[in-house]
Design a protein that fits this description.
69% of the residues lie in helices and 0% in strands. Helix 2 packs across helix 4, helix 2 packs across helix 6 and helix 6 runs antiparallel to helix 7. The chain has one domain: Orthogonal Bundle (Globin-like). The N and C termini lie far apart (36 Å). Bound molecules: protoporphyrin IX containing FE (HEM). Protoporphyrin IX containing FE binds next to helix 4, helix 5 and helix 6.
Length: 147
């Protein structure tokens, strides 16, 4: 329907530039919760958040996140086919100390990135469409925390 169209159209150009958009998203996330930065225990010498934001390992994670979003956008008609993958992804995040509550801030950061890049095309229905999809992804990942 309309939601899927809004998501696919908006992702078309964004998805071609994953890393820069992912950096905008994670820069925002660390502004909202600087503590999350400590969960990335890479063996790089990070003097500052800015150093870390440009470290190869961190950029790899940014790319990984964007590829998951890309997969979700590509599977809008059958998101349930990603459930096992997302459950396992959730487990891995539980293991590295991520809390499910942090996903709300990740969602806010995703919307912030969309707003920055889409400008006037960032409308209330578009925002809601993305929130719906993100909610499905987070719900599936969150099952990885279930005991
Ligand atoms: C792996 C942290 C959110 C996708 C990891 C790792 C850490 C981490 C420490 C392991 C090291 C690495 O692979 O770089 C976080 C934190 C997040 C977050 C602190 C926000 C609170 C997300 C989100 C997604 C995602 C929202 C995608 C929707 C991935 C993927 C991997 C990964 C695909 C690789 C898993 C594997 O090795 O199979 N994350 N992450 N992360 N993360 Fe995240």
């Amino acid at each position: 329907g309309k939601d899927k169209e809004l998501i696919r159209n908006s992702w078309e150009s964004l998805g071609k530039n994953k890393v820069p958009h992912g950096i905008v998203m994670f820069t925002r996330l660390f502004e909202l919760d600087p503590g999350l930065f400590n969960l990335f225990r890479y063996k790089t010498n990070c003097g500052s958040t800015q150093d870390c934001l440009s470290s190869p390992e961190f950029l790899e994670h940014v790319t990984k996140v964007m590829l998951v979003i890309d997969a979700a956008v590509g599977h809008l008609d059958d998101l349930h086919s990603l459930e096992d993958f997302l459950l396992n992804l959730g487990r891995k995040h539980q293991a590295v100390g991520v809390k499910t509550q942090s996903f709300a801030l990740v969602g806010e950061s995703l919307l912030y990135m969309l707003q920055c890049s889409l400008g006037q095309a960032y409308t209330a229905p578009l925002r809601q469409a993305w929130l719906n999809m993100y909610g499905i992804v987070v719900a599936a990942m969150s099952l990885g925390w279930a005991k």
